[in-house]
Amino acid sequence: MESVCMSETFLVLERAVQADLDSIARLYAEIGQPDLPENAPQDQLIVLSYRLHNLYNAFENIFRNVAAVFENHVDEAAGWHTQLLRHMRLDLTPVRPALIDESAYEKLDELRRFRHLFRSAYGVQLDPERLRLVLRKAVQLRRIYLPQIESFLDFVRAVQQER
Questions:
Q1: Stated pTM of the model
Q2: Mapped to the 3 state alphabet, what secondary structure does the chain carry?
Q3: Per residue in 98-135, pLDDT tens?
């Protein structure tokens, strides 16, 4: 009975991650390859910021689901977002492999910091230069995240078949 429950848990994880990957792909399509002009209006910056905010949320949802399944729980005290992201780059073999590598971590950490700023900066004008940096990291991440997460899903599928 226990192996059936674990197999179901891994199936739910796989499907949840896939749903988040679909959301990430949709968000990247919405972001496109924008060329942010020097004098971009705040409305344009806000829309792009909101999409980048949601992009990180989708990645973080994957991380939370992985942490929940592999009992890599993160205390939701101050700093838990940072701690969760750090844990995803840890190779915890034989429990689980790393979900992301150092390069993806660095880009995701920039998105995480920006998301925090975007959520907290009420009434502050968005800085186009900072937004360009975050956008550049998001575009770089776009090229590398999928093979890493797919590799992790291969691990999940293998564990699922063993049970």
A1: 0.91
A2: CHHHHHHHHHHHHHHHHHHHHHHHHHHHHHHCCCCCCCCCCHHHHHHHHHHHHHHHHHHHHHHHHHHHHCCCCCCCCCCHHHHHHHHHCCCECCCECCCCCHHHHHHHHHHHHHHHHHHHCCCCCCCHHHHHHHHHHHHHHHCCHHHHHHHHHHHHHHHHHHC
A3: 999 999 999 999 999 999 988 887 667 888 899 999 99
